[in-house]
Amino acid sequence: MNGAIVAFCCQHSAYPAADLAGKLGLHYPEALRIIRIPCAGRVDVIHILRAFEKGASAVLVLGCEDGACHHITGNTRAKERVKHCEMLLKEIGIDDRPAVMFSLSPNAPHKFVQVANEIEMVTRELREAR
Amino acid sequence: MIIAERKPMAEISRAVAPYKKVLVAGCGTCVAVCWAGGEKEVGILAAQLRLARSAEENEIVTLEATVERQCEKEMVMELRDKVSEVEAVLSLACGAGVQTMADVFEDKPVFPAVNTTFIGMPESEGVWVEMCGACGDCYLDRTGGICPVVRCAKGLLNGPCGGTRKGGKCEIDAGKDCAWVLIYRRLEKQGRLDLMRQYNAPKNFRAVKRPGRVQAVRA
Known about the structure:
The structure holds 2 protein chains of 2 kinds.
Chain A: E1 5-10, H1 14-23, E2 32-37, H2 45-53, E3 58-63, H3 74-91, E4 99-103, H4 109-129
Chain B: E1 2-6, H1 9-16, E2 21-27, H2 30-33, H3 39-55, E3 61-67, H4 73-76, H5 80-85, E4 88-91, H6 95-104, E5 110-112, E6 114-124, E7 127-132, H7 148-151, H8 179-190, H9 194-197
Parallel strand pairs in B: 2-3, 2-4, 4-5
Antiparallel strand pairs in B: 1-6, 6-7
C-alpha cells in the first residue's frame, strides 16, 4: 500500500459519488484506494493509524454533508475523530501524512474528483519537501 | 472510579526507547471507562509507537492485551505468556495496576503510560470530575452528599468562604460551582439546613495510615 491514498467512503454519499465519477469517465489519481463503509462514523482512529502503518501517504474520510447523515451524527463524529487523529500523528512527529475529512453529496462526482486530486497534490508536495 | 490521563507521548517513547519488543497492557475497568487505558487506547498507543519508531527506522514489535482488572494478581497472571515474550511492559492501568503488574512480573521493567489523577465520576461525555479524596473519614452525612474536602477549592469543612461569586460560583475558578452553595441548596431541599449552623471540628486527615490497608469480612 506504499504511497496509497486511502479513502474511506460513506456508502450514502462519497461512494455513489465515486461510482458516478467512474460512470462519467472522470479521472482521479491512481493512488486512490476506495474503501466502502456504511457511514463515516464507522471510521475509527485505529483504522486511520493502521492505514498509515501499512504505508498510506494520506487518509481521506468522506462522509455526508452536514445535516444529511443517514445515521444522524456519523459525519460529525468522524470529523472529531479525524481531528483527534491529526493530534495523535502530530504527537509522534508525523506531519507529512495528512488525515482529512470532507463532506460531499452522492450527486457530486466532480467534487469527489477535485478532493482526490487536491489531496494527491498535497501528498506529492509533502513527499518532495521531505 | 479511578480517573487517569495518558502521559505525553514523548515521555512514553523515552521510557521504551531501549526496547525492541514490548507489551502494551490495558485495564478493562476504571481507565477503560475514562478513555485512558482500555482495549481501544491500547490499540491506538501501540499503533502510535510502531509508527513513530518506523519513522525513525528503529522498528518496535508490540503485543497488545487488556485484562479485566490489572489491580488483581490473578487477572494479571493471564498475561504470563505474553510477558515472557517481551523485554518490557507498558501499562495503561492506574498506579495500583502498574504496581500489581510489576509485582507479578518482577523480572520485567513495567512502565506507566498514564498518570492516575483522582477518584471521580463522569460529568458529561468525556468530562470527569473529582468527587472523593479517599481521606478515610467521610463527612458526606453532614454535607448532603457533597464532599467539601475535594469539591471546595479551599477544602473548607465549614463554608462557604467570603469569596463566593454571584450565581454560586467559586472565587478561585468562576467556571466551577461553589461546593458550599451546592451543599446549602441540597440541605435546603432536604429540610436539614440546621446542619449549616453546626460546627464541623477539624478533620482527622490521618484517619488512614499510609500505606492504607483494609481487612474486610465477606458478608
